[in-house]
Amino acid sequence: MSSSYEAIYAVVRRIPAGRVSSYGQVALLAGYPGQARLVGYALHMLQGRIDVPWWRVLNRLGVISNAYEPELQRTLLEREGVLVNEQLQVDLKQFRWEV
DNA sequence: CATATGACCAAAC
DNA sequence: GGTTTGGCCATAT
Question: Which of A10, A42, A48, A99 has the highest count of CB atoms within 10 angstroms of its CB?
Fold first, then answer.
């Protein structure tokens, strides 16, 4: 297991329920500025594990980028009170996780 | 081993 | 200002 993933997962676990973050923000907080891609890959590797709240991570436009289970992600977010529109987009001004 | 691709983003043009 | 271009790192082939 690549060590960098643990730092990324640790940050994702810090995202409060009902809030969302972006790949870039997670990368920055994990100590990998500008390496949003690494975050995407790390979450990709989870393949649906629920010990990390991967569904709270969206791309910088607030859109669900998940290629595997986009509908599941929407369901999980809405269960926490996060509104997701028909285009799988969230209002970042309202739900973005402020550190 | 070299190339390609990906749940991305900031800067450059 | 929208669009293109690099760059970053881990897997896959």
Answer: A42
